Amino acid sequence: MLTYDGVAKRFGGEGEFALRPVDLEVPDGSTLVLLGSSGSGKSTLLRLTNRLIEPDQGKILFQGTDVREMDLTELRRQMGYVLQRPALLPHLTVEANITLPLKLQGWSKAKRSARAAELLELVEMPPSEYARRMPW
Protein backbone atom coordinates (compact mmCIF):
# COMPACT_ATOMS: atom_id res chain seq x y z
CA MET A 1 0.00 0.00 0.00
CA LEU A 2 1.11 3.52 -0.75
CA THR A 3 -0.31 6.33 1.38
CA TYR A 4 0.03 10.08 0.94
CA ASP A 5 -0.84 12.00 4.09
CA GLY A 6 -0.95 15.77 3.50
CA VAL A 7 2.04 15.64 1.16
CA ALA A 8 2.93 19.03 -0.34
CA LYS A 9 5.88 20.65 -2.07
CA ARG A 10 6.94 24.23 -2.70
CA PHE A 11 9.97 25.25 -4.69
CA GLY A 12 11.77 28.41 -3.66
CA GLY A 13 10.85 28.58 0.00
CA GLU A 14 7.53 30.27 0.67
CA GLY A 15 6.43 30.48 -2.99
CA GLU A 16 3.46 28.89 -4.68
CA PHE A 17 2.77 25.22 -4.14
CA ALA A 18 4.18 22.99 -6.87
CA LEU A 19 2.00 20.33 -5.27
CA ARG A 20 -0.86 21.26 -2.95
CA PRO A 21 -1.47 18.88 -0.02
CA VAL A 22 -2.40 15.40 -1.25
CA ASP A 23 -4.24 12.72 0.75
CA LEU A 24 -4.45 9.46 -1.15
CA GLU A 25 -4.30 5.70 -0.56
CA VAL A 26 -3.20 3.33 -3.31
CA PRO A 27 -3.96 -0.29 -2.33
CA ASP A 28 -1.57 -3.09 -3.30
CA GLY A 29 -2.30 -4.43 -6.77
CA SER A 30 -3.91 -1.19 -7.92
CA THR A 31 -3.08 0.75 -11.01
CA LEU A 32 -2.93 4.50 -10.53
CA VAL A 33 -3.04 7.02 -13.34
CA LEU A 34 -1.97 10.60 -12.69
CA LEU A 35 -3.69 12.79 -15.22
CA GLY A 36 -3.39 16.55 -15.45
CA SER A 37 -2.07 19.45 -17.42
CA SER A 38 1.56 20.47 -17.51
CA GLY A 39 2.57 21.93 -14.16
CA SER A 40 -0.23 20.27 -12.18
CA GLY A 41 2.18 18.31 -9.95
CA LYS A 42 2.15 14.81 -11.48
CA SER A 43 5.93 14.47 -11.80
CA THR A 44 6.47 16.24 -8.49
CA LEU A 45 4.31 13.64 -6.73
CA LEU A 46 6.27 10.80 -8.34
CA ARG A 47 9.61 12.39 -7.46
CA LEU A 48 8.45 12.78 -3.86
CA THR A 49 7.35 9.14 -3.75
CA ASN A 50 10.76 7.92 -4.83
CA ARG A 51 12.62 10.51 -2.71
CA LEU A 52 14.23 12.23 -5.66
CA ILE A 53 13.00 15.32 -3.79
CA GLU A 54 11.71 15.70 -0.23
CA PRO A 55 8.24 16.97 0.78
CA ASP A 56 7.84 20.26 2.59
CA GLN A 57 4.95 18.84 4.58
CA GLY A 58 3.15 15.56 5.13
CA LYS A 59 4.43 12.04 4.80
CA ILE A 60 4.45 9.18 2.35
CA LEU A 61 4.06 5.62 3.62
CA PHE A 62 5.16 2.63 1.56
CA GLN A 63 3.91 -0.67 3.01
CA GLY A 64 3.22 1.22 6.26
CA THR A 65 6.71 2.72 6.63
CA ASP A 66 7.56 6.38 6.13
CA VAL A 67 9.73 6.49 3.02
CA ARG A 68 12.13 8.89 4.79
CA GLU A 69 12.95 6.08 7.23
CA MET A 70 13.79 3.59 4.48
CA ASP A 71 17.15 2.94 2.87
CA LEU A 72 17.01 4.91 -0.37
CA THR A 73 18.37 2.14 -2.62
CA GLU A 74 16.03 -0.46 -1.12
CA LEU A 75 13.04 1.87 -1.44
CA ARG A 76 13.71 2.46 -5.13
CA ARG A 77 14.26 -1.23 -5.83
CA GLN A 78 10.98 -2.18 -4.15
CA MET A 79 9.02 0.52 -5.92
CA GLY A 80 9.58 -0.37 -9.55
CA TYR A 81 9.71 3.28 -10.51
CA VAL A 82 10.16 3.83 -14.27
CA LEU A 83 11.33 7.24 -15.39
CA GLN A 84 10.16 8.98 -18.52
CA ARG A 85 11.86 8.40 -21.86
CA PRO A 86 15.02 10.54 -21.47
CA ALA A 87 15.98 8.51 -18.39
CA LEU A 88 15.70 5.11 -20.07
CA LEU A 89 18.98 3.39 -20.85
CA PRO A 90 19.19 3.63 -24.67
CA HIS A 91 21.49 0.61 -25.02
CA LEU A 92 19.02 -1.71 -23.29
CA THR A 93 15.81 -3.19 -24.67
CA VAL A 94 12.42 -2.22 -23.27
CA GLU A 95 12.40 -5.49 -21.30
CA ALA A 96 15.89 -4.89 -19.91
CA ASN A 97 14.93 -1.36 -18.82
CA ILE A 98 11.80 -2.70 -17.10
CA THR A 99 13.62 -5.51 -15.32
CA LEU A 100 16.85 -3.78 -14.31
CA PRO A 101 15.75 -3.35 -10.65
CA LEU A 102 14.75 -7.04 -10.56
CA LYS A 103 18.16 -8.04 -11.92
CA LEU A 104 19.81 -6.00 -9.16
CA GLN A 105 17.68 -7.91 -6.64
CA GLY A 106 18.94 -11.24 -8.03
CA TRP A 107 15.81 -12.44 -9.83
CA SER A 108 16.42 -15.19 -12.42
CA LYS A 109 16.27 -14.31 -16.12
CA ALA A 110 13.10 -16.40 -16.57
CA LYS A 111 11.36 -14.72 -13.65
CA ARG A 112 12.39 -11.24 -14.88
CA SER A 113 11.12 -11.95 -18.40
CA ALA A 114 7.80 -13.22 -17.07
CA ARG A 115 7.36 -10.11 -14.92
CA ALA A 116 8.23 -7.82 -17.85
CA ALA A 117 5.66 -9.60 -20.02
CA GLU A 118 3.05 -9.22 -17.28
CA LEU A 119 3.74 -5.50 -16.94
CA LEU A 120 3.76 -4.87 -20.68
CA GLU A 121 0.42 -6.67 -21.00
CA LEU A 122 -0.94 -4.52 -18.18
CA VAL A 123 -0.35 -1.39 -20.28
CA GLU A 124 -1.58 -3.08 -23.47
CA MET A 125 1.85 -3.37 -25.08
CA PRO A 126 2.13 -6.95 -26.39
CA PRO A 127 5.50 -8.33 -25.19
CA SER A 128 6.02 -10.11 -28.51
CA GLU A 129 5.98 -6.69 -30.18
CA TYR A 130 7.64 -4.45 -27.58
CA ALA A 131 9.92 -6.41 -25.22
CA ARG A 132 12.87 -6.65 -27.62
CA ARG A 133 12.58 -3.09 -28.95
CA MET A 134 15.02 -0.40 -28.07
CA PRO A 135 13.46 2.57 -26.22
CA TRP A 136 14.30 5.15 -28.87
What does it look like?
- The protein has five helices and four strands, in the order ββαββαααα.
- The protein is α+β, with helices and mostly antiparallel strands.
- The protein has a four-stranded antiparallel β-sheet, with helices on one face.
- The longest helix is centred in the last third of the chain and has 14 residues, at 109-122.
What is the topology?
Blueprint: E1 2-10, E2 17-26, H1 42-49, E3 57-62, E4 65-66, H2 72-79, H3 94-104, H4 109-122, H5 127-130
Helix pairs in contact: 3-4
What is the total tally of β strands? 4
Helix content: 25-40%
Radius of gyration: 16 Å
**Silhouette:** globular
Order of strands across the widest beta sheet? 2-1-3-4
Quickly give the structural class: alpha+beta
Spans of at least 5 consecutive residues with low confidence: none
Give a quick account of the main beta sheet: strands, pairing sense, barrel closure.
4 strands, antiparallel
Order of helices and strands: EEHEEHHHH
Average pLDDT over all residues: 90
Distance between the termini: 33 Å
> Roughly what fraction of the amino acids lie in strands?
15-25%
Relevant terms:
alpha+beta, 5 helices, 136 residues
Gist of the model:
The chain contains 5 helices and 4 strands, in the order E-E-H-E-E-H-H-H-H.
